[in-house]
Amino acid sequence: MTSTQPSKLLSNLFESIDEDARLTVLHIGPALPETVEFFSRYRCKLHFLDLFGELPIEAEEDVPLSLDKQFAELMQFPAGTYFDICLFWDLFNYMGSDAIASFLLTLRPHLHPGSLAHGFAVHNLRSPPGDQIYAISELDALTVRQRATALPGYAPHPQSRLKTLLSCFRFDRSVLLADSRLEMLLSASL
Amino acid sequence: MIGPSIVIKGTVSGDEDLVVQGKVEGTIDLKDHEVSVGQSGKVHADINAKVVKVDGEVSGDISGNEKVVISKSGNVRGNIVAPRVTLEDGAIFKGSIDMDPGDTASSKVSLAAQTPAQNPADDVAPGFDLKSG
Predict the structure, then answer these.
(1) Which CATH architecture has domain A2-188?
(2) Of chain A residues 112-171, which have a CB less than 8 A from chain B?
(3) Which of A28, A85, B24, B71 has its CA 20 to 30 A from that of B12?
(4) What ipTM did this prediction achieve?
C-alpha cells in the first residue's frame, strides 16, 4: 500500500541549493522510483545504501571493534565523496547506541560543514514501529510504502538521547508527527 | 541478440543494438546503440551504450549516454551514470546514480545558510523533549 506523507522540513534541504552546482546525496534505504525521479531535476549523484537490509546490526562477541568493521565494510564511498544531503528515515529506530556511534564514525569523513540531514525518529518511546519505506515525491511530500515484513530490532531512542548520540549533527528543527513520531532537520556539527 | 543459452566472456562491441537474454561476463561497449538486458539475461559486465534497458540482472557499472531504464523485473548492482535514469516500481537497485555525466567539476553545493523556522509554533524546540521515554 502506498500513501503520501506531507513534510514541513524537507524543503529546507533544498532552499540554498544552487541548481548549477552538483549535489551529492546519501539515502539510507532502498531505491524507489519517486526518489530517482525527484532528484532527476538536479545535477546530482545519489548514493543508495540500504542498511535496513542488513538489520539487525549488532556487535559480534569477542571481536574487537566489530561494529566499526561492519560499517566500514558496508559504507565504502569513493574518496572525495562529501554528502550535501543525508536521508535517515527511521534508521536510528533500529540501531543501538554503539551501532549509531560506529555508523557516524564511518560517515563523518564524508560530511562537510554545510551538510544537512533529514530524518524520522520518535518523540516518545511508546511510538509503534512503522516499518515503512520512504521516497521523496515533492519538496513537501514523501511517498510511503508499507514493508511486507517487520524489520528486526526496533528500539527507538528518545529525542534527548538521540541528540547526544548524533554527535556530528545538531538539531535545527523538529516537528512532532502523529503516533509520537518526529521529523528532524539536522545540520553537520564537525 | 545473445540467446538464453549463450555465454560470452570478454568484450562485446559493434555497431548495432543488442538484446541480451543469455550471460555476458566482461564488457559491453555499444556507445551509439541500445542495450537491452532481457528477463533471462545475466550480465556481469560494465555496460557503455546510448540507451540501456534492464529487465534482467546486471552486476557492473552502467553508462548510458542518453538514458538508463531499470524495469520492474530489473536487478542492478553497480553505479549508473546517465543524463536520465528511470527506476520502475519493483526494480531492485544497489549503488549510486550520477545524473550529470558531463560535469567533472568538484564544486560543492553550499548549504550552510539555512532559513530560520517559518512557523515556530509548529515545532518541537530542539532542546525540548516532551515526555520522551
Answers:
(1) 3-Layer(aba) Sandwich (3.40)
(2) 112-116, 123-125, 158-161, 163, 170-171
(3) B71
(4) 0.92
